[in-house]
UniProtKB/TrEMBL annotation:
This is 3-oxoacyl-ACP reductase FabG. SUPFAM superfamilies: NAD(P)-binding Rossmann-fold domains. Belongs to the short-chain dehydrogenases/reductases (SDR) family. GO terms for molecular function: 3-oxoacyl-[acyl-carrier-protein] reductase (NADPH) activity. It comes from Gordonia hankookensis. Keywords: Oxidoreductase.
Length: 246
């Protein structure tokens, strides 16, 4: 018996990166997963890699569109019979200094991270409160704690996710629904490895553990927050940073 045996999880941004790593860990612990992402072909390929329709299904979903999030959550109930866990992970970056950042770059990042998380959070909570149980995991970032040059949009959105998590946790605690967040630090991924080497080394130098994190290390924390191991935790924000900015 895995820690998530018999449970169904929805993961946004699940076709790649942290979302896919979390999905893989959940399936390994017995969960069935529904992956939501913009690229349906990539999402279907990810679901197939996880084991196919018996354990994973793919849905095209733009998290900024409420009706599409409704359809994503409905797929979990229609395919696997329930909804126990939601991971609000979908995200983008549009980095630029304040002087050069456009309104569109700001709005896109706020929309995907902040409204997208709000859509997933409130719509999942409405379902879970009827069942008197559920776990919601929101993916923030250490950028939401300290701020990063060139990321006024991203840092604002990720800080907003922290406040949203705490407010929602207070609203939903008496309904049996737990809401927690993770703030990853420098995690090895396609996005971070695309950084110029100089920038990568500067960031790495600020990590006391002396290395970047791996996606699986975020997945392990996401498993903890989704499982009964964290049954008395809600409204918490767990930093997974190797000690960076502590």
């Amino acid at each position: 018996m895995g820690k998530l045996t018999g449970r169904t999880a929805v993961i946004t941004g699940g076709a790649q990166g942290l979302g896919f790593a979390i999905a893989r860990r959940y399936v390994a612990e017995g969960a069935r997963v529904v992956l939501g992402d913009l690229d349906l072909a990539a999402t279907e390929a990810a679901a197939e890699e996880l084991g196919g329709r018996d354990v994973a299904v793919a849905v095209r979903c733009d998290v900024t569109v409420g009706n599409e999030v409704d359809a994503l959550l409905a797929a979990a109930r229609d395919t696997f019979g329930g909804l126990d866990i939601v991971v609000n992970n979908a995200g983008i970056t549009r980095d630029a200094t304040m002087r050069t950042m456009t309104d569109d770059q700001f709005d896109q990042v706020i929309g995907v991270h902040l409204k997208g998380t709000w859509n997933g959070l409130r719509k999942a909570a409405a379902i879970m409160r009827e069942n008197k149980s559920g776990a919601i995991v929101n993916i923030s970032s250490i950028s939401g704690k300290v701020g990063m040059v060139g990321q006024t949009n991203y840092s604002a959105a990720k800080a907003g996710i922290v406040g949203m998590t705490k407010a929602a946790a207070k609203e939903m605690a008496h309904h049996g629904v737990r809401v927690n967040a993770i703030q990853p630090g420098l995690i090895r991924s396609a996005m971070t490895e695309a950084m110029p080497e100089r920038i990568w080394q500067e960031k790495l130098a600020g990590v006391p553990m002396g290395r970047a994190g791996e996606p699986g290390e975020i997945a392990g924390v996401a498993l903890f927050l989704a499982s009964d191991d964290s049954s008395y935790m809600t409204g918490t924000v767990l930093e997974v940073t190797g000690g960076r900015f502590m």
